[in-house]
């Protein structure tokens, strides 16, 4: 079979979402199939309708071994989708610690910002994924980064009532008095959302 015809098959797009076979293999964790597609010159950084690459899909679903294969074939670790999110954003959002570690080992931009100006640490903090946040902080993520509304990761942790995540951020010198666009501190957000246990915890650090 010619290289041209092999490439046509491996990159033939679905009518739905403009996905390639490599997108689907990556999404479902089919490493052997992905390897075969790459042998036949599949476009490793192909994008679908949402500008997501196969590595984004592997990241969303936590398929570390498949992601390692993609990275071995020079997948773009900092590719951004329509929301300007990288694979590391998605790993942090979905609590895939091992995947996030793999991205960081391949020099993922730890402080990359998405359309909301949120970093991976913002998303891990918002969702309460302490193990992912700890990993990001180990790699020197910016604990003071601010999103579109000038909220730090600590604002988001307190807003959602993630006390143990907040404790981790405070251990890494997060600013208790940081104010968002509306001049609210993390304590304001915890109080307005009814997280009394977080309110009391906060006072221990005053």
TrEMBL record:
UniProtKB keywords: ANK repeat, Repeat
Record-level Gene Ontology MF annotations: NAD+ poly-ADP-ribosyltransferase activity
Gene3D superfamilies to which the protein is assigned, alphabetical: Ankyrin repeat-containing domain
GO cellular component: cytoplasm; nucleus
Top-level taxon of origin: Eukaryota
GO biological process: positive regulation of canonical Wnt signaling pathway; positive regulation of telomere capping; protein localization to chromosome, telomeric region
One Pfam family recorded for the sequence: Ank_2
Classification via PANTHER family: CYCLIN-DEPENDENT KINASE INHIBITOR 2C-RELATED (PTHR24180), POLY [ADP-RIBOSE] POLYMERASE TANKYRASE (PTHR24180:SF45)
UniProt-recorded name of the protein: Uncharacterized protein
């Amino acid at each position: 079979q010619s290289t041209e015809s092999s490439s046509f098959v491996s990159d033939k797009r679905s009518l739905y979402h403009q996905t390639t076979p490599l997108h689907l293999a990556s999404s479902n964790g089919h490493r052997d199939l992905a390897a075969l597609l790459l042998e036949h010159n599949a476009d490793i950084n192909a994008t679908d309708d949402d500008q997501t690459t196969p590595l984004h899909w592997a990241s969303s679903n936590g398929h570390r071994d498949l992601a390692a294969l993609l990275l071995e074939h020079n997948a773009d670790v900092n590719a951004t989708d329509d929301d300007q999110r990288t694979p590391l954003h998605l790993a942090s959002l979905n609590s895939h610690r091992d995947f996030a570690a793999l991205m960081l080992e391949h020099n993922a931009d730890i402080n990359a910002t998405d359309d909301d100006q949120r970093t991976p640490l913002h998303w891990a903090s918002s969702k309460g994924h302490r193990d992912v946040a700890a990993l990001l902080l180990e790699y020197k993520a910016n604990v003071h980064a601010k999103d579109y509304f000038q909220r730090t990761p600590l604002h988001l942790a307190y807003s959602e009532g993630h006390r143990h995540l907040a404790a981790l951020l405070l251990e890494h010198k997060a600013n208790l008095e940081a104010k968002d666009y509306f001049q609210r501190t993390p304590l304001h957000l915890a109080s307005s959302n009814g997280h009394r246990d977080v309110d009391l915890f906060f006072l221990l650090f005053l």
